[in-house]
């Protein structure tokens, strides 16, 4: 529905929401799935729900809502609730705000007290997420926090531990860390939304004091639109690709009239730069698996001469389909969808010409054609529309799509083997296991900060600390990189040992879960033992500190032939491997390359 | 702007908010007369008034409106006067 497409008139949506709902429900062309959505609020959620309903109806989702009592989000999440259990939510949305933060830092508090407060605040949320995940087993959407409206310390508020701005940023980082490492929890980025909107308007205190809305009424559609995008993405209603016009959309000028050499593209002039930036934005979508196609009124040869202009960011091979002819654009649009094998309404039409946009959207039900009249703002409009809202990736690696492809290959390979050992052999794994090298310091520090599951001590290191111990004679470090026949896996395992006379304490041992059960841990230990022997170490002491996440390595040391020599009341254990009693190598399947 | 003109514009807002083109409000109309007019809709009406008349309400003013006539009086007071 036009009124609900970004950029929308938010106040008009609030004013006309009854009429909009009536019209949406009357539109029988839209097929809808029914979903139950529980909104657990730390503020009034009445109009937020009404606005969400509009956007969801427009996305083909007919929502039924459960609304918590005012500010009852914690109680509803933490305690048995017959009504909510009977409702059986498909999604739970925690609609909270920085107004819900219980304890606010003051200058009288010490750094330690404030860190304790942060941990308390965060654990309230973590407990809620964990409980609802267990009881309701559905995706959870959680608002992070908008930045505060006031800055007691001015600019210092952002970097002093006593600043509320600093505090909110810390909490948001903790939310992000959790959401980034857990399945089925999605953050609604209030911090971004409110900044994009303007915090002073977003958090207008009038609406809080009047009706306990922490989001000003005129800003509610932006929040509702954003949450609806996450929900439609979770339920598989994202768009899948772009159908792009060429002349005055991907470059300035008309290739058939001006000639390819006169097109405005590239860094020579401002307008060319703007088109380049727009092309870069579109091209970045390819890594997300978004399809690009061309729909242009040109002779094919002419169109190709434009596409082959060397300053284009988008190259011929980036387009899955190129339709350049004199047929009507809606006809080409349908043909493109058919060739790619998707429904036409899952493709976005990008064209500078309003007449063409109207032609396509009127002829083909459900196609979205964002209004792009000024290319410098084109990416902004597309971006905020949320067509491709990304909810289903957990690995932040840039090579993600490639790695997933090789993972899929490995899985298929595994299915062909009866014997797991045969499968491992077939992977032709090669590892490089060396001491920490300067070029890897940043990545190593990053890994120590994000690995939680295969991590014996969960010690976190800064890059500076990594650098220091890599250069110290008292430390033994190992960094394992793995390659197999399907590709490079990168750095997958780390070990840090501190030597004291003839004893080596394993301060850190972590591994990426991607390479679990592939003998990499055996190869690491073999190498570690070898290095210890070179230093005349006779005993290795391993430490296991249990956390909520590292249960999988509880038995690692015992499996590796260590003997438990100590356990305290927190179930922290110390394990000993006496090298004088001999050690037999454990790795069978990974070929370890000779050192450089 | 006269009270009648303000009332006419207000009537337009009420028609939109309650999605009823036939709605006709008078200065005496209050929440008791319109079924859906509750505190949640009231804030939508106020937001629309702020936009339509280009004014801003203060918390205290917004908290003591009982009927349409009260809104007319408030809007009238807030509108810049022509000298």
Compose a concise summary of this entry.
The complex is a heterodimer of chains A (about 600) and B (about 80). Chain A contains 23 helices and 17 strands. Chain A has about 600 residues and is an alpha/beta fold.
Provide structural commentary.
The complex is a heterodimer of chains A (596) and B (83). Chain A contains 23 helices and 17 strands. With 596 residues, chain A is α/β, with parallel strands linked by helices. In chain A, strands 15-16-14-13-12-11-10-17 form an 8-stranded mixed β-sheet, with helices on both faces. In chain A, strands 2-1-3-4-5 form a 5-stranded parallel β-sheet, with helices on both faces. Chain B is globular and about 35 Å long. In chain B, helix 1 (3-17) crosses helix 2 (39-53) and helix 1 (3-17) crosses helix 4 (68-78). Chain B has helices at 3-17, 39-53, 59-63, 68-78. Chain A binds chain B through residues 11, 14-16, 18-19, 22, 44, 46-47, 206-207, 209-211, 213, 217-218, and chain B through 13, 16-19, 39-40, 43-44, 47-48, 51, 57, 59, 62-63.
Task: Jot down its keywords.
heterodimer, A: five-stranded parallel β-sheet, 17 strands, 40% helix, B: mainly alpha, globular
Write the layout of secondary structure elements.
The complex is a heterodimer of chains A (596) and B (83).
Chain A (H helix, E strand, L loop, with lengths): L9 H6 L1 H10 L6 E9 L4 H13 L2 E7 L5 H6 L3 H6 L3 E5 L15 H26 L3 E4 L20 H18 L3 E4 L1 H8 L1 H4 L2 H7 L8 H15 L6 E4 L10 H4 L11 H15 L6 E7 L2 H8 L13 E5 L3 H12 L6 E4 L3 H10 L14 H8 L14 H16 L4 H7 L3 E5 L6 H10 L12 H8 L4 E10 L2 E14 L2 E9 L8 H15 L4 E6 L11 H4 L3 E5 L5 E6 L12 E2 L4
Parallel strand pairs in A: 1-2, 1-3, 3-4, 4-5, 6-7, 6-9, 7-8, 10-17, 13-14
Antiparallel strand pairs in A: 10-11, 11-12, 12-13, 14-16, 15-16
Helix pairs in contact in A: 2-3, 3-11, 6-7, 20-21
Chain B lengths: L2 H15 L21 H15 L5 H5 L4 H11 L5
Helix pairs in contact in B: 1-2, 1-4
